[in-house]
Amino acid sequence: MTLDDRNPDQPPSPAPDPGAASEAPARRGAPAAEPRAGGVSVFPFSAIVGQDEMKQALLIAAVDPSVGGVLVFGDRGTGKSTAIRALAALLPPMRAVAGCPYACDPASSAGACPHCSGQSAPRRSHRVPVPVVDLPLGATEDRVVGALDLERALTAGVKAFEPGLLARANRGFLYIDEVNLLEDHLVDLLLDVAASGVNTVEREGLSLRHPARFVLVGSGNPEEGELRPQLLDRFGLAVEVTTPTEIATRIAVVRGRDAFERDPAGFVAAHAKAERHLQRRILAARERLARVAVPDATLEAAARLCLALGTDGLRGELTLMRTARALAALDGGEIAEIDHLRRIAPAALRHRLRRNPLDEAGSTARVARAVAEVLA
Question: Which segments of the chain does DSSP mark as H helices, in order?
Answer without folding.
Answer: 52-63, 80-90, 141-145, 150-156, 165-168, 184-196, 229-232, 247-262, 264-270, 272-289, 296-309, 315-331, 338-349, 363-374
